[in-house]
User: Fold these one by one.
Assistant:
Number 1:
Amino acid sequence: MIRTEGLGKSFGAARVLDGIDHAQQRGEVVVLIGPSGCGKSTFLRCLNQLETHDTGRITIGDVTLEAGARPDREKQRRLRLFSGMVFQQFHLFPHRTALENVMEGPRFVLGQTAAEAGATARALLAKVGLADRADHRPSQLSGGQQQRVAIARALAMKPQVMLFDEPTSALDPELRDEVLRVLRRLADEGMTMLVATHEMRFAEEIADHVLFMEGGRIAESGPPGRIFRDPSQERTREFLRKILPKA
Ligand code: ADP
Ligand code: MG
């Protein structure tokens, strides 16, 4: 469902992604870990074409986009539609209600009628536990509620895969669980998900596969049980020592 081959990206002289090969089946949940600055966000942003990659190719579903000086715009557009993205900062429209935020994409990108988009948006807000907050603006919602609106908004575009970039990092600990519950439910429903996160317990629980990134490369990958308990790379071990709660 997601495949990258030799995916690379530079910002000026800095090689931020340096040949990422990744393959992920439909319904698989992959968790992306690694130190700050290792390229997790850039990887997700390339998949979603918020950044254009400069080497290699990206496949999501049946669309493959080759790197090139003039990327194929139609394929870029389709990769964006295929991948729902959820950010650390929720990026909701501040002057619109939760319902309007979720309706916006389906109405103006997918061309749905207000009635159609509204019905889907209400169902999705209910799914993330916010049926009674449809008419609230972001400023009237907690961070956890705003993030759940952002997830509903991404789902409203009927993506084939969901990309999460540290979705709970901006939240107080007591608000994280309500967002993680939504992610867990999506995983249970069979959504294909790629999640950058520092929530190791959560990662261990829902991940089929873990990628450890360092310096723009995948330094180690494997099932969570092995990566967390018996990593083969010293770098992975060092990272986990810093981040895992002491046993
Ligand atoms: P992570 O999400 O793992 O913390 P990022 O993908 O955000 O890492 O960043 C990887 C590297 O790329 C960092 O060194 C960062 O400073 C750099 N970088 C990210 N975005 C840009 C940009 N738009 N312009 C220049 N450098 C960037
Ligand atoms: Mg990041």
Number 2:
Amino acid sequence: MHRFEYRDGELYCEDVRVRDVVAKYGTPLYLYSRNTFKDHFYRLKEAFKEVRPIICYSVKANSNLAVLDTLRQCGAGFDVVSSGEIFRVQQIGADPRKVVYASVGKDEADIRLALDWGILMFNVESEAELWLINNVAQKMGKKAKVALRINPDVDARTHDYITTAKKENKFGIDLYTAETIFANKRRYPNVEIVGLHIHIGSQIIDTRPYLTALEKVKQFISRIQSYKPRLKYLNIGGGLGIRYKDERPDTADRFAERVLPAIKSLGLRLIMEPGRFIAGNSGIFLTKVIYVKRTPAKNFVVVDGGMNDLIRPSLYKAYHFIWPIEDRARDRMVADVVGPICESGDFFAKDRDLPVVDRGDILAVFSAGAYGFVMASNYNSRPRPAEVMVDKDKVFLIRKRESFKDLIRGEKII
Ligand code: LLP
């Protein structure tokens, strides 16, 4: 569910006509619906309300300050993966006691910053990291709270690049090593292991891999009982899939219904780290048709947005629904929707059945709210797009379009 809909052949974001936003801010452009972010957050919160989860929105999915602040106001905590993300959530006055910190490569300065700020816990991804956290905490005269991110070796049945809990993935600690950590926990006097964490992948459509992973967590907890662990939290990560095309992921209610029995039987406080579920369908990407190029082999709709703005189709062959913002009766054409960048991988869609479009038409690329702007780059010296947020009938520019000057900021001729 989201708040982008066609009314009388015109695309609206909440109560604002998208055409008017484009007229004011130009293209390429990211456009977000504030109330869709909220709806998704509350839907998850409501579905899990009987266990009062700590919902830590995964900042990497969309880290614009206005998005983070919207979710903070709803009561969200945050899942961060870098000092830069800590800096962002600090800017919006987030409560550090609702911040969890994953990433396989936290270095000393990152750990120091997080400890100093007083985050809820680190999600520790290796024994070496646990050593370093213990060491830094000792130097700072602190005790660091951590969850061990375990790698349960399950296949989340999603794209290879976003599968994270198979034993050949770089994430988490294998069960054997995790057990030895509990056995030797006295070696880490400045660390308190308060939880377990799993994150099995992203865009997961089928709840079963979660159940398999939870079963492994359960077995693991019973195996380590002799070491008297003092676990308080279970963090089940993010990964809930959304609808891009015709996927039928479980709704929040259905997901809760299926995983809650397993979670309740463990008696631990639940933490979740949803990113895409909240942000994915809360944003669209808008781009203008520059040319329609017909060749003997194919038709190409050349648009002013490129893979530097939205890389998901190029990187994962991800499907995004694309449609003109003015939906009038038109003939159909089959075309590749491509950007202006000098790479054959610069496309938003291949062989797509589309209404016949023309120079100047605006296309909406849907479900671009997560892993859209955050993965944008300046490749081909293209300023990154603006970001705009709609709240009912109000429109806010939440990130200015970059200028040519921004492109060379910090550079120097020698
Ligand atoms: N927690 C951890 C530890 C994660 O690594 C991630 C995402 C999340 C939570 C949030 O996952 P979500 O609920 O959004 O699935 N760029 C890719 C997705 C990469 C996901 C990385 N980790 C894409 O565009 O599909």
Number 3:
Amino acid sequence: MLEKLMQKFKELYGENGELRTYFAPGRVNLIGEHTDYNGGHVFPCALTLGTYAVVRTRNDRTLRFYSMNFDSFGVVETSLDDLVPNKAASWTNYPKGVIWAFEKRGMKLSHGLDIAIYGDIPNGSGLSSSASLEVLTGVILKDIFGFSEVTMVDIALIGQDAENNYNGCNCGIMDQFASAMGKKDHAIFLDTNTLNYEYAPVKLPDAKIVITNSKVKHSLVDSAYNDRRNECETALKELQTVVDIKTLGELTEEQFEEYKHAVKDSVRQRRAGHAVYENQRAIRAVEALKANDIALFGELMNSSHISLRDDYEVSCKEIDILVDLAWKTEGVIGSRITGGGFGGCTVSIVKNEAVDTFVKEIGKAYLDKVGHEAEFYVVDIGEGARRLG
Ligand code: GLA
């Protein structure tokens, strides 16, 4: 793929000068959903799918962007003096947002860039194609402009800042963190309150992680996401009138049950309940994985789905169909919605010998029920973002 991208780069921008190449992965979250903006724990891993870039420096202040995924946009040209978000600039608002966030921190770019991008993460699937593009841009800037003091965690935070304050989605830190900090064959157990993290080996000799893409994306994604976040913030304020906490992630289930009366609205109470219980599930799931208790890990995934479906209400018909089908399939250890929700993907743990049937049977039943095909990816857990050449 990189070769094709390189060829395209030369075709568009010419052959001269030094070309550098970079990669940043997408992610799948195993458990701990909608906890990252509530001071809870998440457990994502980086994929081997991701976004690639070929880059060359320029002598002026021009920025040129091209993406093979948005070929019809052609080359989008802008300048370092025009770093304002602009709807018409489409996908280039992601890299521009990261440049803006670097400059805001005093890291000014002395010259422009020619960039060509290609990503193999299916767009809008909830596998963090936008976070991977942000982290990719961060790695490019750090490398090309020699911002050696910028760590990979900083790159994740800068990407989140760009997403929140330039692109208008109030996301947490999980996606950018997973893309920047991923480690082959490991998931990252991240405490989003402190940013302390630990790599946990995902050794599943008898099973595979399978992502199923529903291939639907409902339009509410961003607005409903921001609504959920606001509901949790209001619930937190209400809880703070009766208990001394800074985030929902500090509460145990028992404490939540004791204090939940302070949350005056039943919908908000369910939202906050999800955040508290899901955080505890994530903690328990990591312990289960360490103890090689994959069955318990799977059960916790299933409970996570039920909570996201009924209490947090971020699932949708198509995803529930996929999860129900998975739950009924022999050899499935656990299955749940993953990512922000309202479409996108499920993640399942499936016994090795059942993977083929899983893909075939669920693929067929989904097509019958929904009217279009699902896509399946057997996951390889990959490394975080980096320069390739
Ligand atoms: C999206 C956001 C993340 C996280 C998940 C839900 O992927 O970008 O920060 O909140 O949703 O867990």
